[in-house]
Protein: Acetyl-CoA C-acetyltransferase
Organism: Noviherbaspirillum pedocola
Amino acid sequence: MAEAYIVAAARTAGGRRGGKLAGWHPVDLAARVLDALVERSGVDPVLVEDVIMGCVSQVGEQSTNVARNAVLASKLPESVPGTSLDRQCGSSQQALHFAAQAIMSGTMDVVIAAGVESMSRVPMFTPSSLPEKNGLGYYISPQIRARYAGVQDFSQFLGAEMIAKNYGFSKQELDEYALRSHKQAIVATRESLFKEEILPVEVRLADGTTTGEMHLADEGIRYDATLEGIQGVKLLQEGGVITAANASQICDGATGVMVVSEKALKSMGVKPLARIHHMSVIGHDPVIMLEAPIPATLQALKKTGMSIDDIDLYEVNEAFAPVPLAWLKATGADPAKLNVNGGAIALGHPLGASGTKLMTTLLHALKQRDKRYGLQTMCEGGGMANVTIVERL
C-alpha cells in the first residue's frame, strides 16, 4: 500500500473563552492555518486536492461547510474543494485519517486535514440546544432510548465521574494531575518548545478591538497554579471528583496538517516530518463514553505488532483528568512519555480542532527529543476513539 507523509503542521495558540481570539470569525482563523500550511510546506497551492476540516458545533458562523468557507477565505484557489466532518472531539484527527486514506488509496497526492472551533462565538452544545417543538427535535431518538433504557442523556461529565470511580482515582490524584499539566505547559512555553508549531495571529478581542499585539502563547495556562487553588474549585456534581480545574478548558483555535504521497514528495522536493504508521477508530460504550481510548490503543498495538514500550511519546487528550490517568493504568504506559508539554487542562480543548492540534504538538515534540514513534488518541462523544501512530522521519 502507498505511504502517506505529513509535510507541515501548524496551530494557533489557544484562546480563552472571550479572550484573544474571540474577535476572529472561525472561518478566517481557519483560513490563516491553511495559508500557513501551504507556506511552510512550499507546495504549490494549485496542487492541493482537498481540505478536510473537523468542527463539532457546525451552526452559525461554523455552518454551511466551514471547510469550503475557509478555503474561500484563504489564498488557496477556488479549484480547491473542502468538506467538514464531525466525530466530536476527534473530528480533526479523523480528518487526518481521511486525508491519509485518500493518499494511501492513490486517488490524491496532496490533502490538508484541519480543524477549527470558536467556543467563544459558537458555544459548546449550541447545535443540541436549539429550540425543540412539542418535545421533538432532540438528538437522542426513541430507539436509542429503548436500547439504553434508563439513560436520560449521554453525559461526558458523568462519564468522567464513572471512570474516576471505576479506576479508583481520588480527587487528590486528579487535581495533582491537573497541576502537572499546567507545570509542563509552563516549562514548554518558557523554553519556547511551542514556538515552531504556533502560527502567530493578531489579537482580536470579543468586541472587535485589535491592539496590534500578536497571539503567541496559549492563553489558558495558569502560571500561578497551585494544588491548593485547584483543590478549591467547586465540584461539578455533589459528591463527585470532577471540577472545572481538572477538566479541559474551553478554547478557541484552528489547527492543521498537510498530507502528501511519496510521488508528491519526490516531484516537489518536500521534506517529510513523519510517516503515517497506523490509523484506526473504534466504537465503545456511549454511557461511560470516555473510556474508548483504552481498547482503541490496545487494538492499534495488536494490529501493528507493537508494544506500548515501542512508542516514544504519547498524546492522550486531557478532556478530563481521569481519561489519561485511566489510559496509563490500563495500558501500562510510562507516565514520563505522556503529554510531555502539558495537555488540554492547561492548553485548552478547541473541540473539532484538537485532533490536529495534538498531532502538531506530538510531531514537534518528537523532533525536539529526537524520538521516532508517537501515538495520539482521544475520547470522543458517543463513546468512540481514534488512534494514530506516526514515525518521525
